[in-house]
Specification:
Elements lengths: L11 H10 L5 E3 L5 H8 L12 E4 L3 H14 L2 E5 L12 E5 L6 E4 L4 E5 L4 H10 L2 E3 L9 H6 L7 H4 L6 E7 L5 E4 L5 H7 L8 E11 L4 E3 L2 E3 L4 H12 L7 E10 L4 E11 L2 H10 L8 E2 L2 E3 L2 H5 L3 H4 L5 E3 L3 E4 L4 H17 L7 E6 L2 H4 L16 E9 L5 H23 L11 E2 L4 E2 L7 H11 L8 H6 L1 H6 L4
Parallel strand pairs: 2-4, 3-4
Antiparallel strand pairs: 1-2, 5-6, 6-10, 7-10, 8-9, 8-10, 11-14, 11-16, 12-14, 12-15, 13-14, 13-19, 17-20, 18-20, 19-20, 21-22
Length: 487
């Protein structure tokens, strides 16, 4: 074993030479020698998560992945992963970033209706192949999202009302662990890892390949956005509760969102629908949102399949560069009008007062709750199985000056929603992410959507050196907490 590199900053030439000596034969890039390749590899949808890893490696084989992991353990580095670039795992100088883009093969087993794909795929790559075989896969709503972060993080979907969470549809996976071994995980082999990777985030190893259940049936749906004036919010909430929720099935869902639309950045209450069916059925459900309350803009259209649906949010998700704080997801049992109006007031006041943060949004994902609640709470690491809606509070800042303001907006908004949930149900909401650190206890205040104690035990046993990064791992793993100065 080589002697761990403990002096920072890192001499990348020596580091690369040691990695080569350890047997890595793939491409390896440092910031100083191929800046364009390096910049492309570290690019994130949220610019503030980019970081400056010591090296970026591009493994092409499973053995190359194993070599990098064993090297990182021996030399005292952590491993960061990149697929779609939407994750928030920190990348510091002691990080080796593993770009998984070479692991992007997709194959379909028509007999079992199962799809197997590499851990470096984006959902668009999976949808292209599955769609050609007439199959639907429960995956990300935007084609550029990576499969690994989505599935290991639970995975809400337009299809969740019918088929459950994305992680519920994982049949098996292949992983490379902290000791460099490559294993199969399913409900018979390495069952602890199979539990952990379905909602416990990517902190137990590098997932080389997933196999998921797919489904036949129509993939045609109305998508897009209906926009309303702020003074229509109360009436729109009445429509949701009196007209939509009572008739909603697993074939339709909506997202209620608060956003400012360019070029004037006027505040808009948005309804983003997903309605499956024939033309008559789609028209009838859409009419719920256009008859009593007239939208001021209608950007909806009928997408012919899952591929087209996944490109519907290109303008919102494709553009990198903004400094987004997406670490305040939460859940709520219902869309209570008093809660929603308070969130609206808070969002509108914040985005008006801080123009640099007017890209901040709040999204209430109102999928049919039955599908999400259809699994037992201990079936996967994603234990949030009580009937609920998923809410994303995203603080966006365009410059570092307002980063803290956008982060506090996101966290405080999630906490406001959580307070209403507690008031109405008597139970704490499921909240997760980086969260608010209690300085007195060095603990994070969020109530996780996972069994934190069970996840911690798996993490400590399977990754004893804390080599694999994830926001949750950094809050639970003893060695990672030491690096953060929390233990």
């Amino acid at each position: 074993m080589t002697h761990p590199i403990t002096a920072w900053p890192v001499n990348v030439d020596k580091l690369r030479a040691r990695l080569t000596d350890a047997g890595f034969t793939g491409r390896c890039v440092a910031r100083c020698d191929e800046p364009r390749v390096y910049k492309d590899a570290i690019a994130r949808w949220a610019e503030n998560f980019e970081g400056l890893p010591a090296l970026v490696v591009f493994p092409e084989t499973e053995e190359q992945v194993a070599v990098v992991i064993r090297f990182a353990v021996a030399e005292g580095f952590t491993i960061g992963l990149r697929c779609g670039g939407h994750n928030g795992a920190p990348m510091q100088e002691e990080t080796i970033l593993m770009d998984m883009r070479c692991f992007h093969n997709v194959r379909v087993d028509a007999a079992t209706r199962r799809v197997t794909f590499g851990g470096g795929c984006t959902w668009g790559e999976v949808y292209d192949v599955a769609n050609a075989e007439g199959l639907t896969v429960v995956g990300g709503g935007y084609h550029g999202v990576g499969v690994g972060g989505y599935l290991s993080g639970g995975g809400y979907s337009w299809w969740s009302g019918k088929y459950g969470m994305g992680c519920d549809n994982v049949v098996s996976a292949r992983m490379c662990l902290a000791d460099g071994s490559i294993v199969t995980v399913n409900d018979e082999q390495n069952t602890d890892l199979f539990y952990g990777i379905r909602g416990g985030h990517g902190q137990f190893g590098v997932i080389l390949e997933f196999t998921v259940q797919a489904y036949e049936g129509s993939r045609r749906a109305l998508t897009g956005m209906l926009g309303y004036r702020p003074d229509q919010l109360t009436s729109l909430l009445e429509v949701l509760h009196q007209d939509f929720f009572p008739v909603r099935t697993s074939n339709e869902s909506v997202v209620l969102g608060f956003m400012r639309l360019p070029p004037n950045h006027d505040p808009v209450v948005a309804i983003m629908p997903w309605i499956q069916g024939d033309d008559t059925y789609i028209a009838n459900i859409k009419n719920i949102f256009t008859s009593k309350v007239k939208p001021v803009v209608d950007f909806t259209h009928i997408a012919k399949d899952q591929v087209e649906i996944a490109h519907g949010a290109d303008k919102m998700f494709a553009a990198p560069g903004a400094r987004r704080k997406i670490d305040a997801p939460t859940t709520t049992a219902d869309i209570w009008p008093d809660m929603v109006t308070q969130v609206w007031d808070k969002w509108q006041e914040f985005t008006e007062a801080v123009p640099d943060c007017r890209g901040s949004v709040v999204l209430f994902e109102c999928h049919d709750q039955a599908g999400i609640a259809s699994r037992a709470c201990n079936a996967t690491a994603w234990t949030a199985r009580d009937p609920h809606y998923y809410v994303v509070c995203t603080g966006t800042s365009m410059t570092p000056v307002t980063d803290e303001l956008s982060q506090m907006f996101a966290i405080e908004t999630a906490e406001l929603i959580g307070a209403h949930h507690l008031k109405h149900t008597g139970k704490p909401a499921r909240q997760w992410g980086i969260g608010r650190l209690n300085k007195g206890t060095n603990e994070f205040t969020y109530t996780y959507a996972t069994d934190r104690d069970r996840i911690k035990e798996i993490k400590e046993r399977r990754d004893p050196h804390g080599v694999f990064q994830s926001p949750m791992g950094q809050q639970t793993h003893s060695k990672l907490r030491q690096r953060m100065g929390l233990a």
